[in-house]
Amino acid sequence: MVSDPAIPCVRWCFHPISFCLFAAPGVKIVDDPVAGRFPEPIGASGQDDVLVGRIREDISLPAGQGVNMFIAGDQLLKGAATNAVQIAELLL
After folding, report:
1. Which residues are CB-contacts of 10 (< 8 A; sequence separation ≥ 6)?
2. 59 and 35 in contact (C-beta within 8 Å)?
3. 52 and 73 in contact (C-beta within 8 Å)?
């Protein structure tokens, strides 16, 4: 599943942070357990977007206090230079 709220959701979609991630620029939701699609470094290679999936409540913490997720990004492309530019844009 890739960032489309109209697609029927698996249980992660109901976590409140999922809605924030759907709206976040530079984030793609990749989570389709049936098809075996999850965030992987090979899928993030060559793009600025960060892939997020397997969003689940952290059951090791009290309810509502933690979230687990897989995150993958191209560390060379989306490394220090891109982050520095994005931070500067936010500050200016």
Report:
1. 1, 31, 32, 33
2. no
3. no
> Domain coordinates of the chain in residue numbers?
11-91
* Overall average pLDDT of the 42-56 stretch: 89
Amino acid at position 92, single letter: L
pTM over 0.90: no
Query: Is a pLDDT exceeding 50 seen at residue 5?
Result: no
Structure tokens at 83: 């982050």
For domain 11-91, give the CATH number: 3.30.360.10
Q: Cα separation of 85 and 60, whole Å? A: 36
Running DSSP on this structure, what letter comes out for residue 8?
P
User: Do the beta carbons of residue 68 and residue 56 sit within 8 Å?
Assistant: yes
Which of 77, 29, 35, 78 shows the shortest CA–CA distance to 54? 29
